[in-house]
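dude i think i finally got it to work??
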Amino acid sequence: MDWLFSLKLIRLFDFYLALAVLVSTVVRVRQYRTILRVVRAVPSRWPQLFVLVRQYRHLFLTWGTVLPLAATLGLWLGHTLFRRLVLSATDDDLRVGRLLELWVALPFVLVAGVAMLGFDLFGAFSVAVIDQTELEKYFDQAEYWLRSWTAPVVRFFTLGYVNPRQMVAVEVQSALLNASQVLNSSLWWMSIQTTLRLLFGLSLWLTYAFSGG
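look at this
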């Protein structure tokens, strides 16, 4: 059991952060590949839809998108700098044996660690599946109405009450708005994950600092 009590928790936390990023990427590889294939195919396969989508690109450039990403990057940068500047020049660290002796700090470290681990596990295994076939079917239908000669004919004979192209534009705007909201939620989730990780790291650092190393 001596190896367990001699574990360096701050360096172990660094390894955990790298592992968390790796696991998160691996479980989402299929999702990333699907998105990449569809995005690459849009300009050539659905050119009219691509032009329409570009008109609504501002839906993704919102504070709800920028702030979570900026907060996440700031938190990661702060931890990295603190870790490199403070601990890199010494072999000292907060060890498990030392932490167990600090009964005042132990509950805070445990609570922060459990919250971080639980949130990371839930986020790693609750990955939405993107149905590429269904998505392409929807894009094909939208592209058809945007470029087909039947769209203005339908509009003419219905005296403008039925405008297929306008309907497609409304549906595309709604879909992009929903996608923007999903993206915002994902980014805020990322920020919460990073915050919990940083809180755990902070509990380790404060314990290390006040214990005299």
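The chain has a mean pLDDT of 75.
im so relieved honestly
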